[in-house]
Specification:
9 strands; 21% strand; Dihydrodipicolinate Reductase, domain 2; alpha+beta; 9-stranded mixed sheet; 298 residues
């Protein structure tokens, strides 16, 4: 779970554990997927179909379920979830849109999901270009072939996708701690969190190096300036620095500088189950008791 290895969430964890905001009582957490990211990964791409891959709440937000449990240090007791595929469907497609964007779509200029713009025109986005072609160093000809013949070039409203494009999850942790989580694709992207305690509150966004701590007694706000190296597109920026951090931590264990990682396999399994339970709740409309749910897999 790479978010445990970020400067951002480690700073939040240190503040919570210090008692500065008292007992954490509520978490509001947002995973803003990003509209184009959703179109690439969850409409046109590998993770578009829950039968062929996984539910989106697992693939995209298992990190978030884990990080909320880790921050408060409590086990999840119950889960409730609602969500749906509402926008990226054939009902939203313009009547005169072709199957492939490259085939003269009359809406190309005003459509944010125009595959020609996303994959062909943007020469700097190696992630998108390598994914759509399945090549390490694709040429423009390779990219054009991909958007003419594969689902990466299809109208975003005419793809074989079935995963949600927005979902909310309510979580009850031990000791009457409650969290509300929103995963949505209708945004620029990023993660934001607000943690409310008995003595104060924390706020932060992974797009900003600043965390704020508000104190109820003094009515003052303290700002914490984090290492900004996790922002942007450097080698240290993946998952807010977590991808880099987890590899450093792995080397520390291998070379004997540390004797354990920040997350063991038991915790990882428990917190993955929160995502599975959320999907079951979404599909059945039921509140899922985690003790009963977990027992099904023992």
């Amino acid at each position: 779970h790479v978010l445990r290895y970020t400067h951002f969430f480690n700073a939040l964890k240190d503040i919570i554990d210090s008692g500065e905001i008292g007992q954490a009582m509520n978490i509001q957490h947002i995973e803003a997927v990003g509209n184009v990211h959703h179109s690439h990964s969850f409409t046109r791409g590998n993770w578009r179909n829950s039968v062929e891959s996984t539910p989106m709440i697992l693939q995209k937000t298992c990190h978030d379920m884990d990080i909320m449990a880790w921050l408060v240090g409590k086990k999840c007791k119950r889960v409730q979830s609602f969500g749906k595929l509402s926008h990226f469907t054939s009902d939203s497609a313009p009547a005169d849109a072709p199957e492939y964007c490259i085939d003269g779509c009359p809406h190309a200029e005003e459509c944010p999901y125009n595959a020609v713009k996303i994959y062909y025109d943007d020469k700097e986005n190696d992630w998108f270009r390598t994914t759509c072609t399945k090549m390490a160093n694709p040429t423009d000809e390779d990219v054009e072939r991909a958007i003419r013949t594969t689902d990466y070039g299809k109208c975003v409203y005419k793809c074989p996708n079935n995963v949600v494009d927005h979902q909310v999850v309510n979580i009850e942790f031990e000791d009457d701690i409650y969290a509300s989580f929103t995963m949505s694709s209708f945004n620029k992207g990023g993660r934001e969190i607000r943690i409310m305690g008995t003595k104060g509150e924390l706020r932060g966004s992974m797009d900003s190096p600043i965390i704020t701590v508000y104190d109820f007694l003094t009515k003052t706000t303290r700002e914490i300036d984090l290492d900004a190296s996790a922002l942007g597109n450097s080698i240290q920026s993946g998952h807010g620095g977590g991808d880099y951090g987890i590899m450093v931590a792995l080397l520390d264990v291998i070379e004997g500088r540390e004797n354990r990682s920040a997350c063991d396999i038991g915790e990882s399994c428990d917190n993955h189950l929160i995502s599975f339970a959320a999907e079951e709740s979404r599909l059945t409309g039921k509140v899922i008791d985690m003790e009963e749910y977990s027992a099904r897999f023992n």
